[in-house]
């Protein structure tokens, strides 16, 4: 899953803090306490996020109401799990414990470990 | 001119030959010394090239006469540029070497730092909300069916283990994994690894930097293994490695990484004797020499003149 862009993250943040479905107008008002965005900009971001599956929308009256499909915590967990799977840029940011072993050597290394453990306890 | 050629020759020899000396088997026996040697060799090459450029810009005779003379020499050099074509070539080479090296390195370093900081910030935020902190472990726990453990350095440093890893590891193995990750954070291993990655990216194709990156990444793992072995037990560190690696999807494994993993396990089970005192001393001397050597070579004319008493350093009469 691609991480959110700056504006996408801001929209998600508003919706997560509200906790209830919101119209584009409501999201826009909340965002524009600190910046000045156009209605159409926020509308595009919301429909993109819905397209990506991050938001669900339901028709209410004459417009859509948007709400996040995942909680903030669920979203973060998904992001972290992605880190575990994919190599790439993120490998430079964090340090994994595990080193890969080929399947054949796992068995022989396991028995070497057990032998060492017994020698130590003996 | 001779000085510049000497410095460049030193840099070229180091860039090609140092990987052979440093890649030998001794590095696993004293990973800390080997790490210092790789970093020093890389720094030595950079310093040599930059100093070679500088010595081309300032004639050595002028350096020996103090700061005013350098400024004078600077003016003379600029004036001289228009007279002799040979001098122009030297100045252009000097500017290219010094400014080129520093600008290229700075450019790549700033980009790398920005990207790393942004990514780290994002992951810290994700850990804060997506993983639960487990004070008894001193680590964050992430729900996942993939067994893994990692650490995220930075000001808000954290160690993360997945629930699958918690299920798979025994108590001792888990302690070993956590000690390994904490050793990374405590030793600030990400700084060394980040520096050599930046060098490789800035100057691709230089054997010293290419192999240095791979070796430093390997050596910090060995260092963290050793730290964990001291705190917990070397057999338990090896056991944790085999347990976690054995559960991973084989398709995701790279051949090179497989060899590295097997090496770490056997090394933990049968640790080699640390290097002897003499070997450690000579390696330590080499580490110091590869950095101070080029500096000494470049500043030799200055030091020589001061020692002979023929000139005073600017400000020397204040003392």
* Overall number of strands of chain B: 4
Strand content of chain A: 5-15%
Count all strands of chain A and give the number. 3
Total domain count of chain A = 1
Uncertain spans of chain B: 251-255
What is the highest CATH level, the class of chain A? Mainly Alpha
Structural class of chain B: mainly alpha
Largest sheet of chain A: 2 strands, antiparallel
The span between the termini of chain A is: 50 Å
Count of helix runs of chain B: 12
User: H/E series of chain A, N to C?
Assistant: HHHEEHEH
Pfam families (chain A): Penicillinase_R (PF03965)
Keywords (chain A): DNA-binding, Transcription, Transcription regulation
InterPro entries (chain A): BlaI_family, WH-like_DNA-bd_sf, WH_DNA-bd_sf
Family (chain A): Belongs to the BlaI transcriptional regulatory family.
Chain-wise SSE layout:
The complex is a heterodimer of chains A (122) and B (319).
Chain A: H1 6-18, H2 24-31, H3 39-52, E1 55-60, E2 63-68, H4 72-85, E3 95-96, H5 103-121
Antiparallel strand pairs in A: 1-2
Chain B: H1 2-22, H2 31-57, H3 60-63, H4 66-81, H5 85-130, E1 132-134, E2 139-142, E3 149-152, E4 158-162, H6 163-168, H7 171-186, H8 189-202, H9 207-231, H10 234-246, H11 255-269, H12 277-308
Parallel strand pairs in B: 2-4
Antiparallel strand pairs in B: 1-2, 3-4
Helix pairs in contact in B: 1-2, 1-9, 2-5, 2-9, 2-12, 5-8, 7-9, 7-10, 8-9, 9-10, 10-11
């Amino acid at each position: 899953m691609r991480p959110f862009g700056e504006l996408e993250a801001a929209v998600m943040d508003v919706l997560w803090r509200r906790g209830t479905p919101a119209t584009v107008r409501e999201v826009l008002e909340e965002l524009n306490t600190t910046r000045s965005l156009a209605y159409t900009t926020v509308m595009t971001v919301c429909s993109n996020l819905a397209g990506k599956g991050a938001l669900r929308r339901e028709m209410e009256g004459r417009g859509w109401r948007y709400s996040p499909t995942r909680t903030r915590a669920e979203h973060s967990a998904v992001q972290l799990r992605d880190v575990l799977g994919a190599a790439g840029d993120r490998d430079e940011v964090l340090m994994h414990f595990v080193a890969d072993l080929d399947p054949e050597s796992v068995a022989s290394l396991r028995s070497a470990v057990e032998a060492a453990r017994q020698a130590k306890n003996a | 001119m001779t000085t510049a050629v000497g410095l460049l020759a030193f840099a070229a020899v180091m860039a090609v030959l140092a990987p052979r000396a440093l890649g030998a088997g001794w590095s696993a026996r004293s990973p800390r010394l080997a790490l210092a040697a790789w970093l020093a060799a890389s720094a030595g090459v950079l310093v040599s090239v930059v100093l070679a450029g500088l010595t081309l810009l300032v004639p050595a005779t002028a350096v020996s006469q103090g700061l005013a003379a350098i400024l004078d020499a600077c003016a003379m050099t600029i004036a001289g540029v228009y007279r002799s074509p040979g001098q122009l070539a030297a100045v252009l080479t000097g500017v290219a070497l010094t400014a080129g090296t520093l600008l290229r390195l700075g450019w790549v370093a700033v980009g790398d730092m920005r990207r790393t900081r942004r990514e780290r910030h994002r992951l810290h935020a994700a850990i804060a909300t997506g993983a639960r902190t487990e004070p008894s472990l001193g680590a964050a726990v992430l729900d996942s069916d993939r067994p893994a453990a990692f650490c995220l350095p930075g000001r808000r440093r954290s160690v993360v283990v997945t629930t699958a890893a918690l299920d798979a590891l025994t108590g001792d193995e888990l302690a070993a994994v956590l000690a390994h990750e904490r050793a990374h954070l405590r030793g600030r291993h990400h700084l060394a690894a980040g520096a050599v990655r930046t060098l490789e990216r800035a100057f691709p194709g230089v054997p010293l930097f290419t192999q240095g990156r791979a070796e430093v990444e390997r050596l910090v793992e060995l260092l963290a293994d050793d730290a964990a072995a001291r705190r917990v037990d070397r057999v338990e560190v090896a056991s944790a490695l085999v347990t976690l690696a054995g559960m991973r999807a084989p398709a995701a494994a790279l051949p090179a990484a497989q060899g590295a993993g097997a090496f770490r396990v056997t090394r933990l089970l049968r640790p080699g004797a640390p290097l002897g005192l003499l070997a450690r001393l000579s390696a330590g001397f080499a580490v110091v020499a590869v950095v101070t050597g080029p500096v000494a070579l470049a500043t030799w004319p200055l030091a020589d003149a001061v020692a002979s008493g023929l000139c005073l350093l600017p400000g020397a009469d204040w003392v």
